[in-house]
Structure formats: C-alpha cells, structure tokens
C-alpha cells in the first residue's frame, strides 16, 4: 500500500475526505483517550460538522479524527500521506503539527519543540463510509517514538428514519 502521490491519487484522497465530512453531518462516535496509560472513554454526537459533548459543541473533542478542516490543513502543510489497509495514514512532523492551530503550536512548544513531536493519524473506512480511526502524538527521543496521547474514534452513521406506515398523514 504505497505512498499516495499528488495527482495520481489526489482524487482518491479527496473522495476519502468527502466521506469523513459526510459522516460528520449526522453520526455518533465513541472516543477512547489514552494519556500516558490513563484511559478515558466518552460518547459524542456528530451533527452538522460539530462535535457535541452533552449536547454542547466541544472544539477539541476527537481531534483531527472528527475535524475535517484539520485533516485538510495537514494536507496543505504537506504531511506525508500513504494508503493503509482499509484507510489512509497521515504522518506529520512537529513543524506541521505546530502549523495546525494556535493550540497545536502551544502544545508543541510545551513538549519541547518541533523536533520532539510527531503526529500519526490513521483514518479507517468500510466501503464508502468513514468508520473513525486513531490519532497518536509521539514524543521523539533519541530516534525513538514514545506515544504521549492517543485518541481512538469509532464512528457510527445514523440512518435516516423512514416515515411510519402506521401513521396517517396529518390533517389540515
């Protein structure tokens, strides 16, 4: 599953991003957050491109996995993209991570600078549907990558409800 090359696979990548955006319109997601061995799990609602926690928008929940604009920004900043089984992998060095947002710049600075951080995002798909993935921030020490933070998302699309056959049309 080789490296996705601009031009030849740009259409494939664009189609995958469109699948992510479609899932963010109306879905549910389970998030598992692992910070240094401490695990937390939560459920979120994806609605009209927003991530809702307890029905309130949360600008940070789900990270890149639930933020298509961050995925697009990674691509604009020339992160490495490759095809993996059932998905796409994006690897970004610290300088790219710092370019994502002010919050990412602050994170990179607090963790020791652009040479010490690496981000890896795996997006998973089943057919034409986005299923979530894993986002991992690594601390790079002496050539080794040590995982600092890992977010795993499982996305479940909601189905449009069909009109009930048992109900008659509303009377005017």
Q: Which percent range fits the helix content?
A: 10-25%
Looking at CATH, which topology would you report? Answer: outer membrane lipoprotein receptor (LolB), chain A
What's the average pLDDT? 87
Count of DSSP E strands?
Answer: 9
Shape: globular
CATH top level label: Mainly Beta
Main traits of this protein?
172 residues; alpha+beta; outer membrane lipoprotein receptor (LolB), chain A; 9-stranded antiparallel sheet; 4 helices; 9 strands; 22% helix
Concise overview:
22% of the residues lie in helices and 44% in strands. With 172 residues, the chain is α+β, with helices and mostly antiparallel strands.
Explain what this protein looks like in three dimensions.
The protein has a single domain (10-157), classed as Clam (outer membrane lipoprotein receptor (LolB), chain A), CATH 2.50.20. The mean pLDDT is 87. It is globular, with a radius of gyration of 18 Å. The longest helix has 14 residues, at 10-23. It has helices spanning 10-23, 68-76, 94-98, 102-110; strands spanning 26-35, 38-47, 50-53, 56-57, 80-84, 87-93, 117-126, 129-141, 144-157. Strands 4-3-2-1-9-8-7-6-5 form a 9-stranded antiparallel beta sheet. It has 4 helices and 9 strands. The chain is an alpha+beta fold and 172 residues long.
